[in-house]
Design a protein that fits this description.
The radius of gyration is 19 Å and the shape is globular. The chain is α/β, with parallel strands linked by helices and about 325 residues long. The chain has a seven-stranded parallel beta sheet with strand order 3-2-1-4-5-6-11, sandwiched between helices. A two-stranded parallel ribbon has the order 7-10. The chain has a two-stranded parallel sheet with strand order 8-13. It has eleven helices and 13 strands. Helix 4 packs parallel to helix 5 and helix 9 packs across helix 11. Strand 5, helix 5 and strand 6 form a beta-alpha-beta unit. About 50% of the residues are buried.
């Protein structure tokens, strides 16, 4: 039986990944400091995993948790471009120091492979579409810088030490358990929550910026496939994980308005510093290396996500 450690296990992607790994027969250890993660995200599976509330920057703790583990799925991070611009020190501490701690601990404990969450933000605001892994990185925020540094460390560790490290550049992941309440919440959960409340969501800029929104189920299956792939195909490599399509934020808002049955329209504000104009993934490298295939398209993913948030609202009302 495979034994896996998931960092950021109580976060949005981490908690979905925990469930996916359990469904595929993994024994799972999870760690989260709950700075942005929530224990509620692990409801229904908490008794099936070993969960530790702690910080990955503790080398002693991280090494202890990596011991006798086959795979580490490093999802822990301090997310959000705007948050990183406001507090670059904290972004660096979590996303650079934290990642280095995980890589070192995995190396020292003899872990076979680390699959870590990289980010499409490293491409910056280049005009070329779709984004291909061979493009030069042009980070435009402290968050993107931190993710790029993680990639550099991953490549060096794969070359210098006897450990295989694989980076997955996520493109705007969305789905169940994504927190809409934070000031730095991602656009889809925030829009859904506001539409359900009958409040107009705020679009930064003209809304014609595009994103490759990727349902979380696609991302978690990419993680497991990358962990199990041939070393020659993935060790020290970076892969885009998206759907290979893009949609404007204006159109996204119209789709969510329809799915939620809202009667309000979005309002527009100033563009945000550090935001890129257009983003779309070329996923052919991941398709070749570990047969990545997005199984849930945008429309189906939006329907599933809205249905999940609606169910959560009903549960909250019934329990109040």
């Amino acid at each position: 039986m495979m034994k896996s450690l998931v960092t950021g296990a109580a976060g949005f992607i981490g908690s979905n990944l925990v469930r996916h790994l359990l469904d595929h027969g993994h024994t799972v250890i999870g760690i989260d400091n709950l700075s942005t993660g929530r224990k509620e995200n692990l409801e229904g599976v908490a008794d099936e995993i070993t969960f530790v509330e702690g910080d990955i920057r503790s080398r002693e703790l991280a090494t202890e948790l990596c011991t006798d583990v086959d795979y580490v799925f490093h999802q822990a991070a301090l997310p959000s471009v705007p948050r990183s611009i406001k507090n670059p020190w904290a972004a660096n501490a979590h996303n650079v120091t934290g990642t280095l701690s995980v890589f070192l601990s995995a190396r020292d404990a003899g872990v076979e492979r680390v699959v870590f969450a990289a980010s499409s933000s490293v491409y910056g605001d280049t005009a070329e579409l779709p984004k291909v892994e061979t493009m030069c990185s042009r980070p435009e925020s402290p968050y993107a810088v931190g993710k790029h540094v993680g990639e550099l460390y991953g490549n060096v560790f794969s070359d210098v030490y006897e450990i295989e490290i694989v980076g997955l550049r996520y493109f705007n992941v969305f789905g169940p358990r994504q927190d809409p309440s934070s000031d730095y919440a991602a656009v889809i959960p925030k829009f859904i929550d506001l539409f359900f409340r009958g409040e107009p969501p705020l679009i930064h800029g003209d809304g014609e910026q595009t994103r490759d929104f990727t349902y979380v189920e696609n991302v978690v299956q990419a993680n497991r496939k990358a962990a199990l792939a041939s070393s020659d195909d993935v060790s020290g490599e970076i892969f885009n994980v998206g759907c290979g399509e893009r949609i404007t934020v204006n159109r996204l808002a119209r789709e969510l308005k329809s799915l939620t049955g809202a009667n309000v329209d979005p309002v527009h504000g100033d563009p945000r510093p550090g935001d890129v104009r257009h983003s779309q993934a070329d996923i052919s490298k991941a398709e070749r290396a570990f047969r990545y295939e997005p199984t849930v398209d945008l429309k189906d993913g939006l329907r599933r996500t809205v249905a999940w948030f609606e169910q959560e609202r009903e549960l909250a009302r019934s329990s109040s």
